Amino acid sequence: MLKAVPGTNDIFAQAREYPFREPVFRYITQTAEEVLRGAGAQMIHTPIFEYLEVLQKGVGLTSDIVVKKEMYVLEDRGGRVLGLRPEPTASIVRAYNEHGMKVWSQPVRLFTWGPIFRAERQQKGRYKQFHQVDYEALGLADPLLDAEAIALMVRIYKTLGLKNLEVKLGSVGDPEDRLRYNEYLRELFRPHAEKLSEDSRVRLEANPMRILDSKSEIDQQIVADLQVKPMLAFLGEASRAFHEKVCYYLERLGISFSVDPSIVRGLDYYVRTAWEVHHAQIGAKSALGGGGRYDGLSEMLGGPRVPGVGFGIGIERVAIALEQEGIAIPPDPSPTLYLAPLDEPAQIEALALAESLRPKVSVEIGYTPKSPRKALEDALKKGACYVGFLGEGERARGVITLKHLESGEQKELEPLQLHSLFEGPDPK
Question: Where in the cell is it found (predicted)?
Fold first, then answer.
């Protein structure tokens, strides 16, 4: 029997693992959509694959995704090299430029959700295909948008019912700030280059800041032993003022946060604001999501200068947090009416009647004829309010035998009477 590729998961209602149950996914994505639409954001869907150049320039040539060859790369029949998206921001910025959104009223706020692909080494809690909710605000370089993005992210989590949240805020400065900081890091790490992990030896010359968030225990120990100064100590006047304004706005909004100098973020396009939201109960992989500002990404993709800020929320991570906190997901509504054909001719009658009642009424049907007792058992399992029997006797009298499952009351109704019952006040 063929099976799914390791690191991928089927998402359906009865999935054994909680994070892959479809009602949980739907609860998270619908909640996020309500919050983001309420803030004036529009839904956008971009392709899951792009020209490789778009994705490489988007994530940066020194990011883990490129350095560790974590991107899925393919070539189409025309010889064009494509990649499956390892994150959604580059695609959204590409769409902003391609469709002339710069002439719209700014900022343009867009959101999406869908699958993300990373060819990571197989390990627990890491997936080759996972899912994100993504929000981007494009067109203004204003710290107010950064604070709003963080507030929206926190609102999504709180609307879902999550507690135990920790917002960690940092700054990666402007390109000029990072030049100074990277030179400081190179001088600091070069005498210890042989001890660094293979990946960090590559980063040492290209982008030494990435050593600071290395997952290697050896690298982490070297960083701790050297007592590396934080990026915040190298911020220029403009970056520091921007960071302080974001902090002030968050305080005014009543959002609890801590300034964490270690926040670097894994993609090269970030400038100034960077943040993560953590959840204490999901352990070492406690980040539910993160975001930041990326004022130069549009130019990297061949477009005009377009400032932007946004965030990504890991759906599977949020699902784990919901499970850890014991938050009950609203159940899917049970059918109001279960129509049970008692013989073969009644099968199409049941379907025709169901279609005439839908969508005003939630109706399910039994697809194979059963005895009244078996049909009643099926209706109870589905949680229906009513069961309607259709058999030879009902056909002869031109009626449906309708039984209210809670009270046990049973009566015969003509089709028009049935419509009147269910199309009037709530029949439950």
Answer: Cytoplasm
